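notes to self, project folder thing:

trying the whole complex as one job this time. last attempt i did each chain seperately and stitching them together was a nightmare. two parts in total, labels are on each line so i dont mix them up again. if this works i'll redo the older ones the same way
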Amino acid sequence: MTTRSDLQTPAPSTDVAMPAPATEEATTRHTREEISALGAGLRAATDGRRYADVRALARATVPARLMVRDAAQTVPEAREWTRRSLRELVGLGLAGSGFPAEHGGLDDVGRSCVDFEISALGDLSLTVKSAVHFGLFGGAVTSLGTDWHHENVLPQTLSLEQIGCYAMTEYGHGSDVASLETTLTYDAATDELVVHSPTRSATKTYIGAAAEDARIAAVYGQLVVDGRTHGVHVVLVPLRDEVGQPLPGVTLGDNGHKGGLLGVDNGTITFDQVRVPRRMLLDRYGGIDDSGTYVSDIDNDNKRFFTMLGTLVRGRICVAAGAAASTRKALSIATRYAVRRRQFDAPGHDGEVVLLDYLAHQRKLLPAIATSYAHLFAVTEIIERLQDLHEAPEKDQEAHRELETRAAGLKALMTRHANDTIQVCREACGGAGYMSENGLTGLRADADVFATFEGDNTVLLQLVAKGLLTGYKEMWGDLDVRGMVQFAARTLGGQVVEATAVRPLVSRLVAAAARRSEDHTLLDRGWHLSMFVERERHVLETLAARLRRGKDHDAFATFNAAQDHVLMAARTHMDRMVLEAFVTGIDACEEGEVRDVLERLCTLYALSSIEADSGWFQAHNRMSAGRAKAVTTQVNKLCAELRPHAVAIVEGLGVPEAWLGSAMLTEPEVWTPGVPA
Amino acid sequence: MTTRSDLQTPAPSTDVAMPAPATEEATTRHTREEISALGAGLRAATDGRRYADVRALARATVPARLMVRDAAQTVPEAREWTRRSLRELVGLGLAGSGFPAEHGGLDDVGRSCVDFEISALGDLSLTVKSAVHFGLFGGAVTSLGTDWHHENVLPQTLSLEQIGCYAMTEYGHGSDVASLETTLTYDAATDELVVHSPTRSATKTYIGAAAEDARIAAVYGQLVVDGRTHGVHVVLVPLRDEVGQPLPGVTLGDNGHKGGLLGVDNGTITFDQVRVPRRMLLDRYGGIDDSGTYVSDIDNDNKRFFTMLGTLVRGRICVAAGAAASTRKALSIATRYAVRRRQFDAPGHDGEVVLLDYLAHQRKLLPAIATSYAHLFAVTEIIERLQDLHEAPEKDQEAHRELETRAAGLKALMTRHANDTIQVCREACGGAGYMSENGLTGLRADADVFATFEGDNTVLLQLVAKGLLTGYKEMWGDLDVRGMVQFAARTLGGQVVEATAVRPLVSRLVAAAARRSEDHTLLDRGWHLSMFVERERHVLETLAARLRRGKDHDAFATFNAAQDHVLMAARTHMDRMVLEAFVTGIDACEEGEVRDVLERLCTLYALSSIEADSGWFQAHNRMSAGRAKAVTTQVNKLCAELRPHAVAIVEGLGVPEAWLGSAMLTEPEVWTPGVPA
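result (full assembly):
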């Protein structure tokens, strides 16, 4: 069994055959990564408080060959590469951090998110393969299981002796987990659970590792005891025997080729009356006692269900962090290309113009970089908060629900930014951007699925809106339309935003801006914050009022007519949360060049957001026509100001050059017109 | 040699070994495509005047197996499939239509665009492979060559005996064709042209068919005669011998795996003093006479260059049409899925809610469908105009330049819409959307490159702006910054928009709207048109004024500071052109349900565009705050009104169900929760 006593030194497992972690090669390579003082300062500012050393160590030790996969691999090749690389990842100490310390982990769920984030700077198949096994399967065993499960499952999970998968999604239901059709029926006569797929739509699908590698599954299904259904529970079900053959009653399929993540063997699972011992039920929140009676500390089925689903929070934080990491990598590639690639002569200028000197090109990349900085601060913050709450002596229910809501929102925001931005980066590199060897199209294809897995973005934003409308007081229900409408009906105008308290620093800045004259500068942070706060407050208050006015007899019609408003409420709330994280992060920096660049990036982020919602701000009398035009002018001005620092700014995004995996960045002479053959 | 005397009946080539076109199977299959009367009516309305029969015949005869490629194919498999399918495509009469009639074509360049559009409803590798050979290579020979080239090259091109490629792009220069580095130097001693790559950046790259199949290339390079450079010309250069080995002096490379279009063998070509006879120069616009002197009817090098590049217009129309076709296919898949997929119970409703009944889902798909209808009318119109101009007894230079400008703009608009919309469609199908077998991710990956090939979108939009600023009077220069600024300086305010005359129908509608009171309805077409016209006029006039005010000594700085403004001028112009095409198309329809649905789609298109630019309209006092909010309400209302017709509306998009290649649409029982196994 792998044990790790030292956070800082990757400790290869002793009983798993794996190649040496090759830290020497990696260190040598990374010693050569010379970055600017500004770049180093930006990295230090964004690495956060708690896991800065973990991030820095990974940048210096993880070898590039583990982070870059050949995009031309076939599905079998990609799966084999991923399988082998997973062992190396474990050897480097980038897996299982969230497991209990007594079973070889670090009991550090925050660290497990950082592990995910680091590996997401490399190949996303490996990231997801690892996350399914350690994060989802291992996480379910850790969080939903009890001592027996920990002792009997986690060791072989950590050693990769037994690969696990996470069998939640069915063909019939993805987002709507409460409606899963698989049944887990207790048979008192044999003291077993019978796992069954009663319909074709109950077939588990898109299950990572089900197609080839998984030997055991954490299966979500409706628990039926003595004829009564107790809602969704999770049971461990062995899938394959020692030689990899499906066990009796288990039918396994292969989802085949996907839009990306070719290294992950997603598959289908159908159960035909498969029997497992009672103890295989992960029974931390609800189980069956020796007398065959269902027992749970949580009486309400719905509340229990959402307490169990609450353990998904880490997965969503990981996906947010991973999407943000992929975006930073794409921006690093495209920006480094944009400062070397020249195109078109310009009158009165020597040589052809460097791409990034065009305003249109700056507009493509720099506001996206500013947003990525904002996201970096927000991600670092939520990861640290996750671990802080995990370590707290008493569980703070409301704080945890706030965290779940924030995780859902960040996941939606950051995966959207990832899909949009990676595509912009690919196009910004022209034909070269379309060649797989340059690293952008694979990133694009792999990160794509982040928009819909671990919670569909549209569904997650509704969850955020519900959290806001109910002040996190009632979260039992996912897309529970009736609950949302009823709660809104009980909420009085003005109350809603207070549910997410504005931070003291932010209050101060907003108050200071309010005291100043009306024509405060566009660069005033207090004005930015007040615009974000006001946008959120107004959208949320008018949403609550609208839902209150709705027809009581048709909650769905009321909700549905306002669905775009619901989504905007969630989005504007998350925008405010992200800006606050950025502002808080900057506040921790000393005066100097690093802080100055961060301030400009923050202003660019804030003004880009205001510019994008210019129509809303004007329609709601928050911004004059003149100011709307001035915002655009200021965005262009900031682009010009940040342009000279572009390389240092992408160094600050924290992606080592050796991990970029972009051929066009390593063959300079090909790209410079006029050099003799 | 293939000859075709009948437009309507696909005539398989007689002397090329190829499988029978299997029209029987296809016809049988398609007889079963039962579409609604509304769907059929919409198809009739959008199929256009001239090529309606070609489109209808293709839908009824092209077999699905030719249109759907297995996304799991490896690069070699995909290339082989594409190679074989190309022969079938020729057999079906979907290639070479633009060739002169005396050499086996139809002398119908419009038809060749329709051929491209039809094949783009299938697999884009096949589309592009065909387009490179017939459209780019064959097109260059046809347009830039003279009799000798037509007689000696076109027959073996049409029969696929000799695959050609189009060697324009170099590593160092893609968009900036005028700066290509390859040299074509005339050696009077041997009466040969010496083709040479003087630098590493002169290597031709991303050249379709260069990696494996091409035997001959149309090579762009700087023609040097007697020590003087005459600008870019095109010469035919054999690349491979009979057994496929590179000829002496020719070095061929393989671009390898790409982000999509795996069936196209893109590669690199380097020339080391390769000699070809003088007659290999495509000398329609400029050549070398028997005395070894350069001769051309066009004195100005720059003017000659852009006359030659003008032949690219068809390629851009094809890419626009292809991108639009891919988008329609994706929307057809996602919409058909959205009317069958159910998710989440709703209080007071029977069963779970169908995805497309959610407002948010309608918002994702229906405005995009409306835009696709707008694009369909615009594409059909420009294809017909291309052929009308081609057939005109005298070449109308200004009309041709307007066409080039419009083609550039439509290409930029439609490829942007394609990338955005296909991604929305993929996400709207959740996890299923990410499985290759469901057809969306492959479409997304393949269509991606449309944004940057056949002209980078950002560059093309600048070309449009320049056309507008100069009233199409001066088009000699691509991204010629100085020219644009100087012309703007000579232009008086108010003159600019008149360069693109508003159509009489549109003028009438706009005038009628202006006569009515200020609070005319949001549904008033005249109001929509006047908003589009005003937006364009104001953006263009203020751009001209801004360029005039710029510093004369630094034209680049003046241009660059306004680059976002330049792009907006182009975009708003194109939006107006597209809306006018839609309005004109509807005007040709009789009263009835088809027209009624088209009117609503047109309104949805117009209001979505106005909503997206809400910030601009308010900042420029073209729309009040109240009206801005009302536009959003009206967009939602239109979505609800169109929802019941969703299936008929996507039938109207003209993609036969059998060509969708989406497994999830053919396995209904899997997707309906609750059906017993």
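what i see at first glance: Residues 1-31 of chain A have pLDDT under 50 and may be disordered.
need to look closer tmrw
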